[in-house]
TrEMBL record:
The keyword Membrane applies. It comes from Solanum lycopersicum. Gene3D superfamilies: Glycogen Phosphorylase B. GO terms for molecular function: quercetin 3-O-glucosyltransferase activity; quercetin 7-O-glucosyltransferase activity. GO terms for cellular component: cytoplasm. Belongs to the UDP-glycosyltransferase family. This is Glycosyltransferase.
Amino acid sequence: MRHQYEEASNIIPHVLIFFLPIQGPINSMLQLAELFCLAGLKITFLNTIHNQQRLRRCTDVQSRFEKYDELFQFVTIHDELPEEHPRSIEQFGDIIWSVQTVAEPFIREVLLSRHITCVIPDALCYYVVDIGNDMGVQVILFDTISPSCLWVYLCLPKLIQAQQLPFKDDNLDALVTHIPAMKGLLRWRDLPHFCLVDYKTDPSFLAALTEIERIPQAHGIILNTFEDLNGPFLSNIRSYSPKTYGIGPIHLQLKNKLVGQQITSLLSSNSLWQEDQSSIKWLDAQPVGSVIYVCFGSLIVILWVLRPNILKGSEMDYKFMKDIMEDSKENGYIVSWALQKKILGHQAIGGFLTHSGWNSTVESIVEGKPMICWSHNVDKRVNSRLVEKFWQIGLDMKDNCDRCTIERMIKNLMGIKRDEFKKSIDNL
């Protein structure tokens, strides 16, 4: 095997990293790449031309990785999408399949032309497992969704075999059975959105099934978590993939390494959008624990981050922003994008109204901020349930977000249950 030859020859391990070309995986994969560079590994990082241009425009990514000299190199491919394509979550399928058509032959070429020890792709790029097996190169998957949701994925065949899928009942509050370590925890409304449709034709469901078929064939799987947070789910995942590595929180591991080596990129960003730093000055003027950091809406004093293109059409974006900023200027602050880890770590932040993405959930836990979870799809629905019922560090607002519910939850988060949530977070 190639890796055995390398060990015998004392050659520096060379890792090819390839990710889904969207914000969450980009952030996690670049953090992982920098951790590897700090450990002395050589990294080739495969990016799309479109996202590489955005990273260079919005971040210090180029200069940040130049300090690792020959240990790090970006290589790029075209995503085969027209420049005017929005590349938003609504077109997620377009992005995945378009990139795959270019990535498959390119990765084969890289493995032939460079001395690659190992490939680490996003777990949804499961076709890389087949390439690695064909060419005798180890593939370790990096799944950027939560371990709890990955465990749900791995149990999907059991739900099909038990005839619980496709879902036919109208009672979304019925408990899901046949998922070990989650009995009495998950309701049907807490499962990924594609579990509530006809799985035989839904592309997302079929992709999840293909992903879990490849997991046992990979050399291992990396997850952004730690045992105290996801221990029961990691134990079950290891029955499918014994070499399951919980190496998180990745952003905190990287921060500690950079501090230890006195490297000055602690506040660096991997954002595809330009980050507005003005919110920090505004937060400095707010009382401790008085602000709720919001992704989707506001009812009390807030810091509200509205990502560009969150609404379809630039005119809608402009009018919506103008109206909201006028209405909230006395008791809130709105920016188009911000450095989330720095905001969550600010003493003025008392809570986080979040979409429950896994990176956001982990970052909020690390900074000790309780959450209100307004989840929509994929792992976010599972995550929000665990935040309220498993870890007891926040509230799950899914499928019920009327004015009274939001008001009640904010009062609980910022006042009535604040100490209770903080204690639970501190115990993780």
